[in-house]
Records
---
Amino acid sequence: MSPPRQTRVLGLGMCTAFVVGNVIGVGIFVLPASLAPFGLNALTGWLITVVGCAFLAISLSNLSRAFPNDDGPYTYTKRAFGDSIAFLTMWCYWFSTWVTNATIAIGVVGYLTVLIPGLNAIPWLPPAVALSLLWFFVVVNLIGARAAGWVQIMTTVLKLVPLLGVIGLGLWVLLTNPSAYGQHIPPNPASFDSLTGATTQTLFAMLGIECAMIPAGRVRNPSKTIPRATLIGTIVAAAIYIGVSAVPMLLIPQSTLAASNAPFADLFARVLGDRSGQVLALFVVIGGLGALNGWTMMLGELTQTMARHGSFPRFLAKENSNGAPTFALIATAAIASVMLLTNYSQSVAGMFALLNVVVTAGNLPFYFVCSLVVLLGAHRFPGISPLRSRLVKAAASGALLYCSWATIGIGAKPLAWAVGLLALGVLVYAVGRFLPTPAPAESTTQ
């Protein structure tokens, strides 16, 4: 079933910006502190994650290349395993996505208080600002996918400025004072537990590499654009993450880095002075706004797709004159708003801990199932040669091994969340089967 779309408006630049902008969100600015306790195991964990995500990107890219007229992963999964597995897989992913939106909005406001301390003067003002940001990007996306795409490009370029600055600072120190890199090498020995823990943390950092394929029905020349954007975005995000993780790890004492609430600000302060922290906060806000815009679009597209397939009420599939899924965007923003208001009393750190658990739990079934689709069915992909089929299946096998490795280190709490989300999804799916649902409307291929 091909999705009804007025225009395919997303090109390679916009799709790549959605991948990079959604992968690199607010969490990157505290990631070095999270990885500090693992020592140099964190760099080995990054190596494993980069290879694993490359396998995932290859697998997802080949799904998009094989079925360019499908409306994303729901249809890919449905082709292979039927409607029930497709629903449960995308249900977990959908759940984690609106949790992401609420948490990013809270995180952005947390950094805004550094720039505007008066925000904390009135108790209701921070949650009101967070709600305003959440709904502002609903309005942006209601204007249309192209408007959201341009916002994503601008915010992605701006958020990369401080990150490239960290890498540039590291290179400058390497050229002018190379001995500095030998003064604070973490003493942690290599260990299996540290390696699996670091792999899980770095996987969480890379979630979002699939974002070019979620709005597949709005992408120009999807058989080429989505695979290229997925691979380019994954490589760019991974390279930046490794660079900005390694520099503070080697230049700041491990105990100091692990206790830091703003590791990049601490790094800049050592060279540029204390006021650099406010400059960094500005870029954190920009990065968070870009991620909020991107994930708002992903959530609207995913909700619309699930409604089109009969998994959600059909009115959620309706589009406005700009081709935007009006009711899907409004309904999911309302759900995220409720979560935002009920959890705002928690600290930002507490909210990101929740995000880590829920989002990782919601994404792993998605990665597992999509990799299985490729492994079991690549030889039947239209136009694929026997040699390429074997190479693609090898990549899918690598992706499955990586997901299994990440699951080992994920811990009991995320696994419990995953089981709970699946159980809730089974209940929702069962109830939906008893309710009258109109048959999906036929649509023409564009």
Note: The chain has one domain: 12-433.
---
Amino acid sequence: MREHGVFTGDMVPKTRTLLLKRSTMYVLYTVFLLLSGLALLPHVLWRCLRGATYHQDLAARCGYGIVPPTGVQAGRGCLWFHAASVGEVQGVRPIIASLHQCWPELPIVLSAFTPAGKRMAQRIVPEAALVFVLPLDLPWLMRRLIRRLRPCALLVQETELWPNLLRAAARQHVPVVLVNGRLSWRAFRRYRWVRPLMRRVLADVTLLLVQSPEGARRFQHLGADARRLHVAGNTNIDRALLAAAQPVPPHALAALVTGRRLLVAGSTHAGEETVLLSVYGRLRTQYPDLLLVLAPRHVERVATLLRQVQAQHCRAIRRSQCASLHPGDLAGATVIVLDTMGELASLYSLCTVAFIGGSLVPIGGHNVLEPAVFAKPLFFGPYMDHFPDLAALLQQAGGAIQVQNEAELYERLADCLGHPEAGKAMGRCALEALAAHRGALERTTRAVQALLSTALMP
């Protein structure tokens, strides 16, 4: 028992045992992380040889070269945001803008897990005084980083729950907020194997703002305190709707594709491009004016994809080469391969129909919002584990169709292309479904503001 704030003798060994168990979990996690890093090193080197840029941020991965902004050095601290990659950086962007308006005197720092996420942050987050790649989640690196940045709060996007990072923040009394939190079924199944560790990790999160009630139940099952858990909705919906409403100049490819049917397959992976090219070849017998745009998830795969397109007896054109082309140059079975960054969302605005990559192979699917906000009919395969709520929402509204295999994809696309009015109606249903679920950005911002107002009180 505990009497008058003092632990009695029988309680001390139990407390020590509990602390030892917790420390052991973190030690095992750190050892596993180091061994996994060594095992992945050959793959990383191979990716670098094929064009990936991981080596450019090697010093930052080891915790070096991250210089705090002037405001942090002056003693005011900062607001630290962390996101995984391109999509997550785009998702946290409006939250950063809103909070920066409330506390303009606080420097904004933003970390990303991938080099592509870092480049996107440098391009679209002008409020950030510092953008860097997150170091490896090793305890000594995270402790040093927290001490150098001295954040008033750490806001992590979606599923970026790095145990040693959150532990270092909690030990230095830095409030941690999970914004736009989500937990796919696949991730949930993996985390259940390490539930004792996840319970400890989630205890270091001050506030969990999650996208859906199902996500909240999964977090709670892993040990999250229900009092810290709130369903705020998906801020990505608000962000996508706001972006689509902004006036933008016509896309550079608009003149080339005017009057043509256009199928845009976004964020594709190895294995599904073969299926898409086969389906495209069959569709062209019915619709000779059909063009296909393939946007690989990883740009370093472009050269391989170009050879694959040519092997299917199609003419392959890089997007970067299209500036010198005329509409007549796109005659025949032409496939445009996107070899640029940041263009996919605007390309969806031109398409007749969209396909979501990473869904015909067990990747988990990618962003369904970008075509939906342009009122485009969209298709995806059976693997949408990363976005189950959005996929279900769009399907139930009649704005999306899920297919199981190549034959079904061909049949459904042929039907959509053959009935353009039905396709347009399908796109409108997708947009209306999203519009009915806006408001998460305001709820999230309001909750974070309330927490920060308390944390920033003198």
Note: Confidence is low (pLDDT under 50) at residues 1-9.
---
Amino acid sequence: MASVDSSRLDEVLLGDYEYWEGGPPHELFREMRGQCPIHWTKGVTEFPKAPGFWSVTTADDIHTVSRDWKTYSSERDGVTAVSVIFPLELVQAMFIGMDPPKHDRLKALFQAGFTPKRIADHEDEIRTIVVNVLDRLEGRDGCELVNEVAQPVVSRVIGSFMGIPEEDDAVWANLMNSALGAGDRTYDQAGAAAIVERDVPEIFERCGKLIAERRERPTDDLLSVLVHAEIDGQKLEEHEIVMGFFLLVAAGNDSTKATYSSGMRALMENPDQRQLLLDDPSLIPSAVEECLRMFPAFAHFARTATCDTELNGQAIKEGDKVAMWYVSSGRDETRYEDPNRFDVRRNPEHQAFGAGGRHFCLGTALARLELRVLFEETLRRYPQMEIAAPPVYVESPFLNQLRTLEVRLGRREG
């Protein structure tokens, strides 16, 4: 991570990739929380046409923004600090890019599919998926944990919910990783254009075929819910169905994969904490919450001010973009004692799924269940797993995840 003199925080361009080369710039965020909790970034070097944005770095201020959708809109200018990569009209076709009342009506279509009870009913199926993926490692000395374990597990889990055939899991994973930027160090304008020219048409083509099948033969998957849903007596338009599908598959692809991989890294780097879980597996749900606090899958989401306002003493103008940095709020010293210490017994509250309000994550129960089962089965089978090579981060101010994590599996148990 690029270093910065604390007296020059006003010159920091937080969206620049130089600050994200080794993952989130935690020391920089610590300085901001203490000296400039609402920080202005005047531009982004890689995207000269992108406007500046405010960074909200404390848990209390993020809570305020998250819950005030009338002042801080998700619909007006996208949900990331830089909105020039993915077409705004497609973001606005997803409920994550909508404001009430349409957001509430569309999100409600999925609530029944993501209740804690319904998710809990899938535990055996999810455990079978995890075990089957781990079985592929039989007889090997090592593996790359992100792409050989986490990726196929999350792809099959969300694929089973959405009605994606298992043979298409890898195709959809590649599309999601490409569209969200998980495969590249940086985006230049050509890279952004490639998403629109290559990935978006393929997403629409593949999803269009699935939609046509559901229209002819409805099933009980979530894509069928979208295809046959009505809002105010009107069925969703094709692009709204496609982008609803995209949102759920993208979130299912990135969230659990990111937190599991970073959590396993933390357990290998802190063998005393791993031993606590091996001695008492009932601590794993607590460890899941600690991993979510320290390693939220998305570094930030953003809103746009709908009027002149003030936040923590800082004047914000109508039209200003406001980024909520979860990678900062999860280490807020006013909320957590020794916040950079990984402690599986902490069982903290956190903002990894948002900070309340209308856009609180729909898939929280599914993510928690997936993470618990992944940690349970990985630790049970490979309690002596070790890091084999320096982990490599996706260099992104949006995605907070490892690109690769090479490991030695160690002696297999069970």
Note: Residues 238-269 form the longest helix (32 residues).
